[in-house]
Amino acid sequence: MKQITVIFFGLSGSGKGTQAKLLLEYLAKNDPERKALYVETGARFREFQNSDNYTAKKVKEVTVAGKFLPPFLPIWIWTSLLVENFTGNEHLVFDGVCRQPEEGPVFDSALQFYGIEKPIILFLSTQNKEVEERLLKRGRYDDTHEKIGERLNAFEKNALPAVEYFRKSPTCRFIDINGSQTIENVQKDILKALGI
Q: How many domains does the chain have?
């Protein structure tokens, strides 16, 4: 199987994490000779904020307040994962990168640096009401009506410009996926879009 690079975009609760994990399982089963590197910034930040250092404490303050971290921090998370783990041969699956406009060009430059041509951007399209219901069922500590509303507003204000950057970029393939379908149908559409 040809090496693939996939970047998942969508609202919080759109199914990005679920679909990324299903894709990783598919790749492990169907291309066992090639590893996959999964870059999921949200989980890394949740893990990092429990570290015993000043930056981690500041990160926790910002995330607990439901605010966006300055762009240098998410860029540091995903660039350090690439620098430390990418050998040039792995499939790359990104979830939770480029949630702010400033990250888009930096991310684009990283992919160009590694010679990754035409990465595939998968945008899981869902309605606000639907993702709110999904997140409330998930039951994470920050999944309250107020916090979910803040995240949805932040997505429109900050992440959508980054999404549009990639939608217009000639260096990527941008694919809209209906994220309101069943998990199985979303996965089928993704595999079809990837041609695998």
A: 1
